[in-house]
Amino acid sequence: MFRRLVNWLRDTSSGPSNTVGELLHNEEGAIFVEYLTLTLMVSVTCAMATLTLGEQLLRLYRFQQIIVTVPIP
């Protein structure tokens, strides 16, 4: 059993040996990068909208809260 583990480690320790030509045509991870870019763009847009509208929305919320709690019969 120990010999199998040593052989496995020896086989996997060298790692993939990609040449520059293989790396230029390698498309693994391209979808991940696209999703990551899209997520970052949406996050930045939402953060900018929150910063821009946040204070105004908070004022509107507090005004509506006062209107609702005013004891007018």
Catalogue the unreliable spans: none
Q: What's the tally of helices?
A: 3
According to DSSP, the number of beta strands is 0
* Secondary-structure element string: HHH
For this structure, the quaternary state is single chain
The fraction of residues in strands falls at: under 5%
Form type: elongated
Mean pLDDT: 82
C-alpha Rg (nearest Å): 28 Å
Query: Which secondary-structure class do the elements indicate?
Result: mainly alpha
N- and C-termini, Cα separation: 85 Å
Largest sheet: none
What's this model, at a glance?
The model has no long low-confidence stretch (mean pLDDT about 80). It is built from three helices and no strands. The protein is mainly α and about 70 residues long.
Description:
The chain has 73 residues and is mainly alpha-helical. It has helices spanning 2-13, 20-24, 30-69.
Feature tags:
3 helices; 73 residues; 78% helix
Question: Which helices and strands appear, and what pairs or packs with what?
Answer:
Blueprint: H1 2-13, H2 20-24, H3 30-69
